[in-house]
Amino acid sequence: MFEVSMFQIFVIFMIILYIIKRPRIGKNEPPFVPYTIPILGHTYNYLFNPKKFIKECKEQYGDCFSIYVFGHVMTVVSRDSLTEVFRNSDDFDFSSAINELLPFHRLFTYNGGITKETNIFHAKTAREQVSGKLALNTNIVQKYLMKGMDKCIGDCNDPKIVDNTWLTFNNIVALSITNIFAGEEAAIHEDLIKSFGSFAFDVGSLLMIPPILSFIHPKLHEIVITLPMKFGWNPVSRHREVVMNRLRPVIEKRLKEKTILGNNYKPYNDLLEYYMNQPNFDYTIPDNLSYHVENLLVLVFASINTTSRTVVDALYDLAGRPEVLNELYEEALTINKECNGTITILEIQKMEKLDSFIKESLRHSDNILALPHYMISKSYTFSNGYTILRGRKVLMCADDMLKAKECYGDDAEEFKPFRFVNAKSPATKIDRSYIVFGGGRHACPGRFFAITETKLLLHKLIMKYKFSTKSGKIEKKIYIGPITIPSQSSLVFENRVKC
Asked: Which of this chain's residues are annotated to bind heme (predicted)?
């Protein structure tokens, strides 16, 4: 009797998988980079050697080519092809690509998470209620950034070593944004601040699970990482409950004030007030309050973690360059004397050297591939003649675009802190090469608030402390596949001597 061993079954399975998943490329599609490892394709180089791999691909195949990663063909675009993706948002969808990485549509059970439709509402909220209220909120941001600095760093008469730098500054940023989003009444509660601060880290932990099962089908990966939800575990639900418990009494208090004061009621400037004024708001219905809280959490996810990341990258870039720190201190000192320590939007706009430094730090984020999109139309033909079909994932060759010599000169690879001084090119300005905030009409609407808060926090840090890397060197970022996270090295803080 013939017996089939497990090894034989495995071999047969792999042969079938290879036949099914073998890339099929049309005549007019971008050039496909050959690979030597069956089934795995380019996955190893994508994960462990991305910078060299993408550079070599670009040199050989140009600004538009396709690779085979985790069982799927992905098209990498740069330069003109990249800007076309931003210009044609009806053909390319960012939301579906993000939901593949993190299944927001499963995690956010009341508002549907992040979709092309809900993004319109979230973008409008960020543009009008966050970035649009910078002048109103600058004092509140300033107040709580200072409180956060005092709490998390404090007095440094003797040099203080700060470990877990990203987490430390994430907590500082979380304190200020909690007050802007939930209001000062709710933000007195430590559990709410902690929830806001840890939310993106908790949800983002799902990104650390490699999509091995995507070699078979991408849905299998989604099913596996969301399987714990069937048993009651959901990284969103715990945070949602904390937020609801802290906001409900504030909502009741405000509604009572409205009833008593009528037309004399003075609206609050926080996001909670904005959600309360939505036509469909009714906190007495549990699902309704959950819906609005999840809308709030979407903006929490998009803001705190990314802003603290910008701050920390800038800190490391600055801490290893003492001569630049001294020059920025001179600018900060001049501005501080003019406003007597109370910064307004006008003073923030005067921080030209600091703004340039932040933009250069963002330009050197060193992410190789970023901002994935899915092609959702029947087909799309780039101006270079290449055509991709519906369902193709497109990845932006971010580092190549941000360091293009035709845009930034022959020294584009260098870190020049004051590159943009007198260039009329602030850190919030979007152009074809500066894509850290996306591009086109869907560029990040919260970037104005994020850059303002980053400048405020760095200004206060520069005024109060001298800081350096523990090693005394410029620390490099850590690569996780084609994206980066901040260095894990310690920073050393010391009080400035008062003149």
From this structure: 444
